[in-house]
């Protein structure tokens, strides 16, 4: 069956098969699902700076004129946006970039958590170059609001770190901790049989995972690309990924095709994800040759790696890379990791500060350049 399934993934077979539900956008959840996206009020604030007057807020042109006359803090040499910046790896990326003199816009869906994170960083590390702006990467208005804010205040963006993500499964966390799985077993992918009793991959959680980890990343990147193109110091895009799932893809035909970036674009990626969701819904993941260890998460990071290479080829003047931070102890892996967030952030920071002649379209395993595709 595996050989037959592999044969079905030819370069001409990437259409959504009849009878399968197409991939649903964040605003169209599965009718039986529990995924609900909350729209959070848009908010932006600048730490240790006066709030702009109402007159300034009412005119984007005047915003830009005011920005030209601001001091070096408002017109920074390098400006970065970090998604999912209020905790874990994202929080540490913000701290470490700010310590390198980069002005950082820390973003988070939750306004209070984002503001608290900025205040904590400023207090603990004596930093004044971190800004908070609310961002829900799945919300059109929220993405547009951030882009308008950056355009009116700074007119450019130098660094984008796409860190926001979700695990994509329903978990019995107490049961998972009781299993006390060796980290080496996690990293080898051999924990798949051990976790079946405590981790469940549902269709709705898979949709949420793919929306957040891939589509949300893609949409915020597209929203900020015009500003990244205005960078005078050479723009950088860093996409947080995981272990190279595509190298362990059971489907050999698909695994070989994933190595060839020239045959891929966003439409073909979407068709592949539709195919994956259809097989998940029909309980034929193993038969069709998809990953079975955290399947939606694995697929989301597989396409993040692929999208990174597509972007790098499309924008050769930028340095665009994906970074696996290591098995970091954060909420996304239910605090089973063995690396502290401070260490896990180093790879993303290194990729964000690459020189103009640095690598692009590459995979970093923490701070080291990984295996080529």
UniProtKB/TrEMBL annotation:
Q: Which InterPro entries match?
A: NAD(P)-bd_dom_sf (IPR036291), SDR_fam (IPR002347)
Instruction: Provide the alphabetized UniProt keywords.
Output: NADP, Oxidoreductase
- Residue ranges the record marks as coiled coil: none
| Pfam short name (any one) | adh_short
Q: Name one GO molecular function term.
A: oxidoreductase activity
Reply yes or no: does the keyword Nucleotidyltransferase apply.
Answer: no
GO CC annotation, single: membrane
Q: Which family does it belong to?
A: Belongs to the short-chain dehydrogenases/reductases (SDR) family.
Record-linked PANTHER family: (+)-NEOMENTHOL DEHYDROGENASE, OS07G0685800 PROTEIN
Q: What is this protein called?
A: Uncharacterized protein
Organism of this sequence: Oryza meridionalis
Its ancestry begins with: Eukaryota, Viridiplantae, Streptophyta, Embryophyta, Tracheophyta
């Amino acid at each position: 069956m595996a050989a037959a399934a592999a044969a079905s993934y030819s370069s001409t077979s990437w259409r959504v098969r009849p009878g399968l539900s197409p991939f649903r956008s964040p605003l169209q959840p599965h009718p039986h699902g529990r995924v609900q996206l909350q729209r959070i009020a848009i908010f932006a604030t600048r730490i240790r700076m006066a709030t702009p007057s109402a007159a300034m807020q009412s005119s984007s042109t005047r915003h830009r004129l005011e920005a030209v006359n601001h001091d070096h803090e408002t017109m920074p040499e390098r400006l970065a946006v970090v998604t999912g910046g209020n905790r874990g790896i994202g929080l540490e990326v913000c701290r470490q970039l700010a310590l390198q003199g980069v002005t950082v816009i820390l973003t988070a869906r939750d306004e209070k958590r984002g503001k608290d994170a900025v205040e904590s960083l400023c207090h603990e590390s004596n930093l004044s170059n971190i800004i908070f702006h609310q961002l829900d990467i799945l919300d059109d208005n929220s993405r547009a609001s951030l882009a308008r804010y950056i355009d009116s205040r700074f007119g450019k963006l130098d660094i984008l770190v796409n860190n926001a993500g979700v695990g994509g499964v329903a978990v019995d966390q107490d049961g998972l901790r009781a299993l006390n799985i060796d980290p080496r077993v996690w990293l080898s992918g051999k924990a798949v049989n051990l976790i079946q009793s405590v981790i469940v991959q549902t269709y709705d959680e898979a949709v949420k995972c793919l929306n957040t980890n891939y589509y949300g990343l893609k949409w915020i990147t597209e929203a900020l690309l015009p500003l990244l193109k205005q960078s005078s110091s050479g723009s950088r895009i860093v996409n947080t990924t995981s272990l190279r799932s595509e190298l362990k893809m059971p489907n050999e035909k698909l695994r070989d095709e994933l190595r060839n970036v020239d045959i891929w674009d966003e439409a073909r990626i979407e068709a592949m994800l539709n195919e994956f969701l259809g097989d998940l819904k029909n309980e034929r993941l193993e038969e069709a040759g998809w990953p079975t260890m955290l399947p939606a998460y694995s697929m989301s990071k597989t396409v993040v790696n692929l999208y990174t290479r597509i972007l790098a080829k499309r924008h050769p003047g930028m340095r665009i890379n994906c970074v696996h931070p290591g098995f970091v102890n954060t909420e996304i892996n239910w605090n089973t990791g063995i690396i502290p967030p401070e260490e896990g952030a180093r790879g993303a920071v290194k990729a964000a500060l690459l020189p103009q002649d640095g690598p692009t379209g590459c995979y970093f395993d923490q701070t080291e350049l990984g295996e080529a595709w």
